[in-house]
């Protein structure tokens, strides 16, 4: 469990200039080495961590002399260089003055920057090959010095990103322990190459100016913050470009947990935050924040542009290390070096995530330490809960207030002289107490039957009846599906809901309890719905994979989401056939209409509790699907409800603590391009003894098609006018497949016409059913 | 190993009509049951197998009365039906007259057809639910009768194909042993709904006419062969539609080996065979061939249309069961019932695959029993080969003839008085013998040094020198990389090539042997190239997955391809950036130019033998990528070569037997839509001690884009005119990333302009590197 206080670690970046200045002025009587002096100074200034380049210009010079053929060099010098290179390749090693640090104490707690002029994705095979050897040499040296974390230069060349990724993967596999972090601007800086006068800022601090000549290196391109206005119109595809490289790298590295991201905020951010939300789902370890990214406020103090502010606030969920550079360069007139770190701390304190976590009574505060932690859902029907579990859930101030309100209103609406309540599943009695209060508030004459099957909780109930409740409460020990109750109830109250509504078998339990509800009686809850949205989270994907228990692997998890991104957007998608961001799967109602019952009043089979849903989601921005987020919403009575639906929970039951969402994992991640559509199928399946879910997703790409419009319209005149709205919905009771309607659906390429364009939808991928064949049914009936 | 004689099994389909007629005329003194009589008759007619429907009309009637609500039924009959259904759902069981067979001897060797009116993909939830129960009931009954194989009704509803698939998967997981085969028309018959007067033919044989009323069922739609002309223009997307459903089903069933395809040839085939090649990669078990598919030839005998002929010939690689139906219905005037089976046998005999396998001297004949069988590549450097292995390869009549021809021509071209040959890796001596013949043919003065490191083969060499070769041949025992040779050779001959050219370490071995070649000397081979193509094969995917040995899992295999489909097409793709169907990765040349050598004349590192390639393939038809097919081509001397490149082998070295292609498997299948592009990266990697390959693929979809043309062109005027041809090629020696060129490459959406359209390429998927980090290097140097 991590604490929110100090979400961010603030680090300073020592440049080669800093180190070389310290060398010049070194006084061995005070500090053993110049770097140790710099480290002590950084600590004194309040920095919690230090980053520095691992190698010096000397190393760059030697490497380039060996490995790059200068244009116009003669044959002899070529052979000479190649001979040196071959000797080096056979035994890669540094000379003393080619590295910045040489001692364990200089390396302690330090994050090193790998030589950023290494082109791991160079177009030239030999440059790539020798850059790989150099990278491995640097990492081996860093490991020797017990360095825990190294930042790699950003990939720059989409065409050879797979080579970059292969090299990183090879390093992860061959270098134990060390964490590698890929530095990456949030969007592709190449679009800036056409803007006037791009300046290289962050790079200046790392390498000396003369080394930046374009003939020998293609350093990371960072542009000054002042050009941010020009960039705010960068199209989404550009913003996806660097993410796509990151996705390729981590996929080839098979989501290695030692691989993280260092986001480079030197390039100005786009003005819309929407496209940035994808970074929430990635393992962001650090943020590079050069002083040049700051702008001066009216008083001259360094502050960040609005988008950067919001983005850094959002990033606090990652507990990032914020690496400040050039803070000592005096780029702003007021505040001095400490102003930058103070400003980051200000952003931290004003981060919505941090604030929610720190405010007592919020679910974020309640969930401290449980963010992105996978829990198996409770199985209260199979397992008898512990007292401490009941206690945790009884802490929820909202849920039981809502129940009391629902019972209160039901009482007001109910016309009987004497009202019979039945609490089905009383647990340790929280609903009994609330029910008594509701009765008191209405001054109605009522009695309560409290049914409970957990023998241990039943002791608590007896104790409370004796001490608190008295004769108004009758206790009944047994399973609500089989027990006999002295009289039928007017109002049946239960709290059997799971994070997905029906996932703790409320429908099955209430089928049994309906026997003792009067035919016109009220059930609280009266209905509940399950909701889904497609989710991306490399953290959750890795957590689910790491689960050793096969049975757990095939079930959904209860998770307090944090480092996740919901991939779906609002709106109908290009085809117009998509629903909203979060979509309803199905509903259960109580009491339910006319099931066929046996002599005992129980359903003969559980078929009526089977459900299925097929949902169409619009995916505006490219992302990787790792699973589905599951939510529920319940109507207790009238307009009193419970909800963990992200868009509606604050309206319906704000600050309710009892339910985290459900996470349905997929075995294999599925790449979803921008403007694609995702079709999710989910089934609630049941046998006599078991209930379980299965889920599946297929992705489609819609794109405007002018090449085939004419041909298609001519071929099948009735097809062009078919639209999504004329399709049969899933709820139709008829078993008949009409010969006319399915034409549209049976086509591999679905077509539709909107007002202006003709779109074609082509299947592009799928991720297979996670929970096949009911092997892993997870609740015994 | 399977024999080619009898590729196809010919089966007859017994209809309910056949069975009911046999019941009427049953004579218990001759046969125990009517079905046993029919089986005996079928055997007498020469059929090798029998298929029949498992259930009768009685069962259909009962199921429909219970599970379908007839329109206009009253409340009481609804409840009555629902009560019956609930009883059935809780204990699904047949009555005696609802099934066609009841005895083990009736079921022996029989393939049953599951009730084809079961709508496993119905739009209505309840119909689907009850169809699933009925299907499981039928399969349980079939299992009880020890039936090995059942054919399931075709999926019909793309919208609910995932539900169909989930049900099939559940059946596979819950029913041990039985094989399930999905019947499937080759293209989506729904396009026929607009043609005039579609007739239902095959279905008529299964169910009685009155049951076909569209209000209670949506039976498989099969149309008569006579409408084939109308259909020949069916677009490719329609032809992909049923394949896409099949792909979805087998993917959700995780490529279960008990799941196969029964292709239904009742609908007429398209006139082009190209799009049909995808079925070669699928596990086709049976072909349904109703008499109505046949047309009458000039003499009135039943024959098939040309496309169907070719398709069935191609299908012989699957060793299918061809299920003939209605052959006894007298639909053709000549030939009687036996004419249909005779015609299928004719197609079998004239199948190119069968003919190639039966013709002595072909690689197909030589490879009998090795089709689609995964073999680990030889590692002759690490392992000393057995005499029997040498013997197998010495059988190749073409390879050694080519070598002799190459040596002969090199001798003619060589100007020295006395010529020194060195055979590097002489094995048991086949090249020595050929070399002596070549010398004799040219009457030149020459001697041969034969180097061999295998001590066992060296005994054979000594024996042959003594008995056959005499003084013209000097034997040298040792590894060519380290041995000293008395004099330098004019012509160095080696046969170290693997299926991918360099994969048995020819480059590394010849680096050593170059020490004893004169500076201007000749190497035979003088060069070789490696070639790749994307491949689909569910068989090979399953075979590779089944390999238990982790190390083997991460290496390529030697395979004689059969049930595979090369996914790439010729032509540049929509973007114009794609290469041909099979593309060259890299080349090795001997003697190679100026490597830096150590004092012993050996390279200091193996860096110069590292290679990488990035290839763009055009994928015309949707398919699933399971791996890469690898081939080689070698120039021995001048225009004498060796090739297993599918397009060129017959031209260069026809009927050469020594090499099957290589198969590079992917861990996860990758769905590729029609008209997509596949970018394949492959690396030949090396350390001091190891050589290995890694490979990776990303898929992209190009589509015409008119929505963004204007915006993009305005945003970045220079972008629109960037074209693939101006990009730096992979071979450029400069390490410099030019600031101007990479703009195009670094964009996530690659754009290009051809003469008429503006295309946009969007990444849609990837399959990860199979062999990460060099863990599984497979050849020790």
TrEMBL record, chains A, B:
Listed transmembrane segments: none
Entry annotation: catalytic residues: 495 (proton donor/acceptor), 504 (proton donor/acceptor)
Site (Critical for specifying symmetric addition of methyl groups): 393
SUPFAM superfamilies membership: S-adenosyl-L-methionine-dependent methyltransferases
Any GO molecular function: protein-arginine N-methyltransferase activity
InterPro entries, A to Z: Arg_MeTrfase, Arg_MeTrfase_PRMT5, PRMT5, PRMT5_C, PRMT5_TIM, SAM-dependent_MTases_sf
Keywords: Methyltransferase, S-adenosyl-L-methionine, Transferase
Sites where the protein binds S-adenosyl-L-methionine: 390, 399-400, 452, 479-480
Domain PRMT5 TIM barrel, residue spans: 46-349
GO-annotated biological processes: methylation; regulation of DNA-templated transcription
Domain of life the protein comes from: Eukaryota
GO CC annotation terms, alphabetical: cytosol; nucleus
Family: Belongs to the class I-like SAM-binding methyltransferase superfamily.
Protein name: Protein arginine N-methyltransferase
Native organism: Sphagnurus paluster
